[in-house]
């Protein structure tokens, strides 16, 4: 499969984004369209560690979840041994998608000719493959016809897959993020809430919208963002990009006015000191990670075609704070805050998508704020790194 996206356009984008942010332009509109998406499907998503779901969403042995990763059909299973595994969600007989909807089952049976697999991916049965009531045939070795496995990684509750097996070992890849957050003790995080939506916008527009705080006072005026408008870019290519905010100014204000520090117990730190920073990151390419003083947000923004993105994120608190009835009101307050904030971004993302073709035709290149949008600049560089001339070498 060879995708047609002009190498000259890739080289131009490489040159435009490679400069320091104050001298560079944003990605051209074509990078948010269908031809470039085809290139991403071929080069970017298969070779990356892509977060595809939260493990808490398949909590029991026997749970199985189909996931679409940029058109790649993937099956996640929670095996009897407690392991979460990933496979190509493709039956080894005639190749249809094996599992269509989330399910809980002892084994997985293809609806077409009833080939049956274990949750560990082994082929258990090929009914009547050799004729009526003959469940075997010469040359059909069940051991060689299990589901095709995909490498899995795990960080906190996020489940990652590397489709083509060429990414670095997961522990090596995730190490820079672990180093960044080394002072946090996140071992007691518990899943509390799940938020989902669909945007009519390319996955990159959705990611870019979540890692810059430039828009906070304009797009989310209720957040009192002037209390912590000092975002600093935080970029480690090719693992994470985004920014952090010093929230100490917000801490000094009336507690009721705090947008980011609800009235919930602080996350634990290894040095026992309160956390002055709030991190908002993309774990490239598909994970979104937000760490505040008292809660964590982990989730995915998965492309559903070039102009559609599925958002699926969850909120976590430390230990009992996730379920303690005495904190129900505080959790609800935090959830309400997010339910107010997140939909406010949607019209901006969709408006950015609406002009991607015409802005190229009109010769309009986007500019990023050197002060506020270093994380977006880092993200765009990672996109070019992953598919651009360098990636093709
Ligand atoms: S395609 Fe699955 S059993 Fe035939
Ligand atoms: Fe926003």
Explain what the structure shows:
There is one protein chain. The chain is an alpha+beta fold. It folds into 2 domains: 7-48 and 169-392, Naphthalene 1,2-dioxygenase Alpha Subunit, Chain A, domain 1 (Alpha-Beta Complex), CATH 3.90.380.10; 50-155, Rieske Iron-sulfur Protein (3-layer Sandwich), CATH 2.102.10. Helices cover 26% and strands 26% of the residues. The chain has helices at 7-18, 34-47, 170-180, 203-210, 216-219, 248-251, 328-354, 356-361, 374-387, 389-392; strands at residues 50-54, 63-69, 72-78, 84-88, 103-104, 107-109, 116-118, 123-125, 149-155, 158-162, 184-185, 189-199, 232-233, 240-246, 268-269, 277-283, 287-291, 296-303, 309-318. A 7-stranded antiparallel beta sheet has the order 1-10-9-4-3-2-5. Strand 7 and strand 8 form a beta hairpin. It is globular. The model is unreliable at 255-259 (pLDDT under 50). The chain binds FE2/S2 (inorganic) cluster (FES) and fe (ii) ion. FE2/S2 (inorganic) cluster binds next to loops. FE2/S2 (inorganic) cluster binds at residues 91, 93-94, 96, 110, 112-115.
Features:
26% strand, 393 residues, 10 helices, binds FE2/S2 (inorganic) cluster, binds fe (ii) ion, Naphthalene 1,2-dioxygenase Alpha Subunit, Chain A, domain 1, Rieske Iron-sulfur Protein, alpha+beta
CATH architecture of the largest domain: Alpha-Beta Complex
Strand fraction band? 25-35%
How do the helices and strands follow one another from N- to C-terminus? Answer: HHEEEEEEEEEEHEEHHEEHEEEEEHHHH
CATH topology of the largest domain: Naphthalene 1,2-dioxygenase Alpha Subunit, Chain A, domain 1
The major sheet is characterized as: 7 strands, antiparallel
- The first-to-last residue Cα distance is 17 Å
> How do the strands of the widest beta sheet line up side by side?
1-10-9-4-3-2-5
Helix content: 25-40%
What is the mean predicted local confidence, pLDDT? 92
Q: CATH H level of the largest domain: which superfamily? A: Naphthalene 1,2-dioxygenase Alpha Subunit, Chain A, domain 1
Tally of DSSP helical segments: 10
Question: What is the level 1 CATH name of the largest domain?
Answer: Alpha Beta
**How many individual β-strands?**
19
Shape: globular
Radius of gyration: 23 Å
Q: Residue ranges: pLDDT <50 for 5 or more in a row?
A: 255-259
**Domain module tally:** 2
Q: Quickly give the structural class.
A: alpha+beta
The unique ligands bound to this protein are: FE2/S2 (inorganic) cluster, fe (ii) ion
